[in-house]
Amino acid sequence: MVGVTVRARLRRISATVKVKLTRPHAIVRRMARTNYYQVLGVSREASDDEIKKAYRKLVFEHHPDRNPHKTDAEERIREINVAYEMVGDPEKRKSYDRLSWGDEPRSAAVDPGLILDEIEQKLFDEGRKEVFAILIPNVARVREELKVIRERTIQAQGYDSFLEPIVTTRASEIMEDLVTEDMNKRKRRLVEVAMEMMVSQGIVKRGDERAIRSLRARLDEGFCKGRVQGVASALELFYERR
User: Fold this and answer.
1) Which carries the bigger pLDDT value, residue 31 or residue 116?
2) 163 in the same domain as 233
3) Distance (Å, rounded) from C-alpha 113 to C-alpha 96?
4) How far is the C-alpha of 171 from the C-alpha of 86, rounded, in Å?
5) Whole-angstrom distance, CA of residue 27 vs CA of residue 118
6) Can you tell me the distance from the alpha carbon of 74 to that of 68, in angstroms, rounded to the nearest whole number?
7) Domain match, 115 and 7 both
8) Which candidate, 221, 238, 229, places its Cα nearest to that of 140?
9) In whole angstroms, what is the distance from residue 213 CA to residue 207 CA?
10) Neighbour-count burial for 167-178, b at 16+ CB within 10 Å, e otherwise
11) How many domains does the chain divide into?
């Protein structure tokens, strides 16, 4: 019966938990480095109609059928299509503007604190998903950790429950066993990309080393908290009160 319950829970989360460990930082870097407005030859203040006209003009000019002698024609079209997909859609354009510059030029200025909160949440989610993905296939390890947590919980309060302080403490204790050096390298890359975005958006000044160290520590801590939550989420999935 327990196995059926766990499988049912796994099916419920399978549609929402999709983990790819190598892609997110690459996407953030691309957004940080590529100015899609420049690709389309328009300004950031361009209207949606102006962006559409510029896109159609560029597609006509650079289509491989019209430029059979150009070896980079297909790559150029792909670049144009990616740019239009990002800034040709009003909602994606808002997100792109906010993540790339920290503002939306066609609306009121965005609170830098909201941008920081959004980046912190992204890093937290990355930490949570990577550890969850590693732990969830290892059912034996999960059950072993639940046994330890159950014993500590009963000792602390006299009955079994999924007691968060005990769960998070145990998650921190076993984190070194779960996290590889490659995972830590990936974490550092993600944090540095996020830092560069924060600096480029003026949330901290490039020369303010004290503020940069403080923000880097804050982002790193958020990622690590996400990892702890990843352990807790995996354990809770299999938890059955006794």
Assistant:
1) 116
2) yes
3) 17
4) 39
5) 15
6) 10
7) yes
8) 238
9) 11
10) beebbeeeeeeb
11) 2
Measured between alpha carbons, how far is 235 from 164 in angstroms, rounded to an integer? 11
C-alpha 154: how far from chain center: 36
- The Cβ of residue 17 has, within 10 Å, a number of other Cβ atoms equal to 14
Please give the Cα distance from 93 to 86 (Å, whole number): 6
CA distance 104 to 95: 8
The two structure tokens encoding residue 11? 């099916």
pTM over 0.70? The answer is no
Quote the domain boundaries for residue 96.
34-110
Q: What is the pLDDT confidence band of residue 15, given thresholds at 50, 70 and 90?
A: very low
> Does residue 160 sit in the same domain as residue 212?
yes
DSSP letter at 111? P
Q: Which two tokens stand for residue 95?
A: 């997100």
Contacts of 33 (CB under 8 A, 6+ apart): none
CATH of the domain at 44: 1.10.287.110
- Helix orientation angle between 209-238 and 112-135, rounded to the nearest 10 degrees: 40
- In sequence order, which residues have a C-beta less than 8 Å from that of residue 210 and are 6 or more positions away? none
185 lies in the same domain as 211: yes
Looking at the predicted structure, is the pLDDT value of residue 107 above 80?
no
CB 100 within 8 A of CB 198: no
The reply to whether 120 and 226 lie within a common domain is yes
Percent of the chain exceeding pLDDT 70 equals: 81
